[in-house]
Amino acid sequence: MLLKAEVSSLADPTHSAASELPNDPVIRQNMWQASVLIPIGKRTVVFSSDALENKGGMQLSITANRLD
User: Fold this and answer.
1) How confident is the model at residue 22 (pLDDT cuts 50, 70, 90)?
2) How does pLDDT run across 12-21, given as a tens digit for each residue?
3) Between the CA atoms of 22, 23, 27 and 28, what dihedral angle is there, to the nearest 10 degrees?
4) Bridge pairing between strands 57-62 and 44-50
């Protein structure tokens, strides 16, 4: 399977050094693309990322099922 993950968020304007004006939005982005092999019938984590705006994180898991 070809998998592409895109994660975007708005940065906190009070902590943004890239902004010239206080009202300029700053968008953070992570992008990842790869071919992945997923075993049939087993839940598999295929993408994991730290959250861009806090200390949290996220995961994408997939379970492939055989179609008969």
Assistant:
1) low
2) 766 555 555 6
3) 20
4) antiparallel
Strand partners for 48: 59
- Region 24-39 average pLDDT: 86
Retrieve residue 58's tokens. Answer: 């996220």
Residue 8 to residues 26, 33, 41, 55: CA-CA distances in angstroms? 10, 15, 31, 15
CA distance 39 to 62: 10
Displacement of CA 63 from its chain's centroid (Å): 18
Model's pTM, two decimal places? 0.58
